[in-house]
Amino acid sequence: PESADLRALAKHLYESYLKYFPLTKAKARAILSGKTSGSAPFVIHDMKSLTEGEQFINCRQMPVMEQRSEFGHVQESASEVELRFFHRWQYRSAEAVREVTEFAKSIPGFVSLDLNDQVTLLKYGVIEVLIIMTASLMNKDGMLISYGQIFMTREFLKSLRKPFCEMMEPKFEFAIKFNMLELDDSDMALFLAVIILSGDRPGLLNVKPIEDLQETVLQTLELQLKMNHPDSLQLFAKVLQKMTDLRQLVNDHVHLIQLLKKTEVDMCLHPLLQEIMKDLY
Amino acid sequence: KEKHKILHRLLQNSTSPVDL
Question: Which residue in A has a C-alpha nearest to residue B14's C-alpha?
């Protein structure tokens, strides 16, 4: 009966993962390997294709002033294009934070935690979750963006000016190793919940109920990995080890963003991302 | 609480889309 409860939890979290996250790993892998019936993604590999591909970028959240005017074809410098692309990226990230928040709220027991602790768990967990989810969209040559409509090459991201060029490379390195574990979407749902329910985030008021919730999800993840990957030795331990790398990645990411804020006078950070990154590490 | 206004709002509003 206890294992039946854990299976039910795994099913529930997988269902809410499918409900809140628009691009699953299964779908992303199909697009990346060219196995979808739809059209192939638009490839951005240089400044010219970036300018052309902007029309495909899903930017529901962009303020009107950010949209290209009818005079958009007047000479634009590469740095303007880079900056505008970064803005769009940010708005998609803020939308992704909202998706992760809805997913967190669907974890049984999460909304009963102290509201301040819910905020702390999200503040510290959300970038880790987004990095893990981005790994699903990456291969060694590039990554899908805009809900899978665009493939942006790794070389192009590396060619941007400093410090933009340094933003994604560590995530690619992480993703290539993480993807070797071959987790599927149902495993990912549980792993993301484990990350969110970390009882050691700074400033938590009431750690015990968080640890209790995490313990149940950890047992579920362990059982799930044994059943889903019977031949993969020590997979549970390997997955948990990734949590250490993630913290370092987030730390480096936040420092890069802080550097950007100093060097790019025209850059304004989305208010939600500001809230999350302020005094994070 | 003021420091994390939007996060609070995202957590407290149920499924309705939040103006980010």
Answer: A102
Both structure tokens of A92? 């998609």
Question: What is the per-residue pLDDT across A199-258, written as a single tens digit (0 to 9) for each?
Answer: 999 999 999 999 999 999 999 999 999 999 999 999 999 999 999 999 999 999 999 988
Closest in A91, A94, A118 to B11, CB measured: A118
Residues of B with CB under 8 A from a CB of A: 1, 3-8, 10-12, 15, 18, 20
Lookup: tokens for A157:
């991201």
Sheet of strand A138-139: strand arrangement:
A42-44, A150-153, A142-145, A138-139
A275 contacts in B (CB within 8 Å)? Answer: 3-7
Query: What is the distance of C-alpha A107 from the center of its chain?
Result: 18
Q: Do A119 and B7 touch (CB under 8 A)?
A: yes
Instruction: Indicate if the alpha-carbon torsion angle A275, A156, A85, A27 is positive or negative.
Output: negative
Q: What is residue A166's DSSP assignment?
A: G
Across the strands, what pairs with A43?
A: A151
The string of pLDDT tens digits covering residues A125-171 is 999 999 999 999 999 999 999 889 899 999 999 999 888 899 999 99
Say yes or no: ipTM exceeds 0.90: no
